[in-house]
UniProtKB/TrEMBL annotation:
One Gene Ontology MF term: endonuclease activity
Pfam family, one: ERCC4
Domain of life: Archaea
Taxon lineage: Archaea, Methanobacteriati, Methanobacteriota, Stenosarchaea group, Halobacteria
Domain ERCC4, first and last residues per copy: 17-146
Protein name: Restriction endonuclease domain protein
Amino acid sequence: MGETRHGSSIPSTILRDTREQRTWTFERCAVETRDVTLSTGDYAVPTACTHDPESDTYHPRFAVERKSGDDFLTALTWERDRFCSELRRATEWPQPLAVVVETSWETLLQNRGCMAWRDIHPNQMVGTLSTWTRHYNVVFRFVESRRRAELCTFLLLIRHSLRRRREKI
C-alpha cells in the first residue's frame, strides 16, 4: 500500500514507534500501520518524516504523542525531564507536537480516575501545561476514552497532511 491514497493527501500509512507499549491499530480507519523508530512522538505519517537509513530512524516534522492518563501524570512528575526533552525536539516544527491524552480534562480537574491516588493538585497540572504550551511547540488534547483518542490522532494526522498539501499548492 502506498503512503497516501491515490489522488489524495489522506494518508494510507501511519508510522508507529516501535517503543510504543499500548499501540493503537487504527483498524476502523482503513489505514495501514508500520512499526518504525521515530525520533519524536508515537505516531506520524511518512510524508511528514525524513528517514536516516544509517540509524533506520524516522525524524518527523509533525507527530502525535500518545499518553494514557497515568502516563500523562508521570510525564508531569517523575519523568518530567525526559518528557521535556521530547518537547524540545519539536521546537522547530511548522506545527506543534500533538499530545493526545486518553482521559478527559474534567476527570483530571476533578481528581477522579488516574488523578484520584496521585500526589499532584489540579492547579499544578494546569500551571505546568500553561508553561509548556507557552515555552514549547506543543498542544494537548484530552479525550475521554482510548478509542476516541485513537480517532483523534487519526484526524490530527489527516489534518496535518491536508494542511501540507494546501501549502504546496
